[in-house]
Design goal:
Radius of gyration: 22 Å
CATH topology of the largest domain: BirA Bifunctional Protein, domain 2
CATH class of the largest domain: Alpha Beta
CATH superfamily of the largest domain: Bira Bifunctional Protein, Domain 2
Strand order of the largest sheet: 5-6-9-13-12-11-10
Distance between the termini: 50 Å
Shape: elongated
Length: 334
C-alpha cells in the first residue's frame, strides 16, 4: 500500500507513515534516530530519504544530541504520511498535496486541460484565491478547514443524469456532517454557512469528467475563517467534532469521499435523490433578492429547488418562474 505524492513525485509507503508517527506521536524524550531505524527495520539511507521528504512537505525537524529527533508540529494536517491510512484506494496513485495553493478547483481544471486525465485528489491547507460560485472567493485559515477538489471519470453516467451532480455533491456533504443545505450550493448549520461546493464538467465525446470541490470550515470560529461573511460558522464552533477522531479533518474527508461515491452510484434514481436534497433545503418560503446576468434586480420568495439545480421563485407580483444558478451572479436570502 502506498500514496503517490504527485506534486513531489514521491511514493509514500508504510515505512514513511510509521516514521512520521514515531516522530510526532511518541512521548519518549530523547528519541534517537538509531532506535527508529531498528524498530521499523530500515536502512539509514532510507530513513534520511524520508526525513528529506518530510522537509519538502514543510515540516520543521529538530535534531539534537541531548533531545534527539522530532518533528515540530501542532495540529494534524492532510499531508500524504498523515492521510496514509485514510486515503481511498482510487486516489492513492494521484494525491496532490499543497501547504498553499491559489485554488484547488483551478488546479484540477488545469490538470484536466494539460495532462492525460487521471482520477485525482487535490488538497490544500490554505488557498490564496479559493473559488466559489460565480467567481466568489472562499476564505479559510491555514490548516483550519477542508479545501479539496476531486477529478472523477464519470463516463459511465448517462448525459441526462449530469444535471443531478450538484445535488449529489451537496447531499453527500450534508450526510457526512449532518447539516442542512441552502440553494444553490451552500452547506449550512443553524442557518449559518459552514461550507460550499463547486462543480465543473468536461465532456468530450464518450469521455466525461468532472471536478467536484468542497470548502468546509472545521476549526476556529466563523469570524476567523471568513471575516467578510457575517453568518459563518465552523464544525468546532457548532460542537460537531467527535472526541475519538485522531485527525478530524482526515476523518471527515474520508467519510465525505465515501458518501460522494455512494450518491453518484445512485444518481440515476433522480426522484429519491431530489427528495432527500429538497428535505434539507432551508430556503423554502424565505424572501429572496437577486440580480440576473443583465443586471436586472428582482424581489420575491423562494418556493423550491428543481432537479436540474435551478430554483422556483415567486416575484412580488405573484408570478412564478424558474431561475438558473449560473444566470444569477448575485442573490441574497432574508
Amino acid at each position: 500500500m502506498q500514496i503517490f505524492d504527485a506534486v513531489r513525485k514521491y511514493k509514500v509507503e508504510i515505512n514513511d507513515s510509521m516514521i512520521f508517527s514515531e516522530l510526532t506521536e511518541t512521548n519518549e524524550e530523547n528519541l534517537k534516530e538509531k532506535k527508529i531505524i531498528e524498530k521499523i527495520n530500515i536502512s539509514k539511507s532510507s530513513f534520511h530519504k524520508t526525513i528529506e521528504y518530510f522537509q519538502k512537505l514543510g515540516f520543521s525537524i529538530s535534531f539534537s544530541k541531548s533531545k534527539g529527533i522530532k518533528i515540530l508540529k501542532k495540529e494534524p494536517r492532510l499531508s500524504p504520511p498523515e492521510f496514509f491510512n485514510y486515503c481511498p484506494e482510487k486516489f492513492r496513485n494521484n494525491y496532490h498535496y499543497f501547504t498553499t495553493l491559489n485554488s484547488t478547483h483551478e488546479y484540477a481544471v488545469r490538470l484536466i486541460k494539460n495532462e492525460p486525465i487521471n482520477e485525482s485528489l487535490i488538497v490544500a491547507e490554505y488557498q490564496s484565491s479559493g473559488r466559489g460560485r460565480s467567481g466568489r472567493k472562499w476564505f479559510s485559515k491555514l490548516g483550519s478547514g477542508i479545501l479539496v477538489s476531486i477529478i472523477l471519470d464519470l463516463s459511465n453516467i448517462k448525459s441526462e443524469d449530469f444535471s443531478m451532480l450538484p445535488i449529489a455533491l451537496s447531499l453527500s456533504v450534508a450526510k457526512t456532517i449532518n447539516s442542512n443545505l441552502s440553494w444553490p450550493n451552500d452547506i449550512v448549520v443553524n442557518d449559518k454557512k459552514i461550507g460550499g461546493t463547486l462543480i465543473s464538467n468536461f465532456i468530450k465525446g464518450d469521455k466525461k469528467h468532472a471536478v467536484l470541490s468542497l470548502g468546509l470550515n472545521v476549526f476556529g470560529s466563523g469570524d476567523e475563517v471568513s471575516p467578510a461573511l457575517k453568518q459563518a460558522t465552523t464544525m468546532h464552533q457548532e460542537g460537531m467534532i467527535e472526541k475519538g477522531w485522531k485527525n478530524p479533518r482526515a476523518t471527515i474527508l474520508k467519510n465525505w469521499i465515501n458518501n460522494l461515491d455512494k450518491e453518484i452510484k445512485n444518481i440515476s434514481n433522480k426522484d429519491k435523490l431530489f427528495k432527500e436534497w429538497s428535505s434539507l433545503l432551508v430556503d423554502k418560503g424565505k424572501k429572496i433578492f437577486w440580480i440576473d446576468i443583465h443586471g436586472k434586480k428582482f424581489y420575491g420568495e423562494f418556493i423550491e429547488g428543481s432537479q436540474n439545480g435551478n430554483a422556483f421563485v415567486r416575484d412580488v407580483d405573484g408570478n412564478e418562474f424558474e431561475i438558473k444558478a449560473e444566470e444569477t451572479p448575485f442573490y441574497s436570502f432574508k
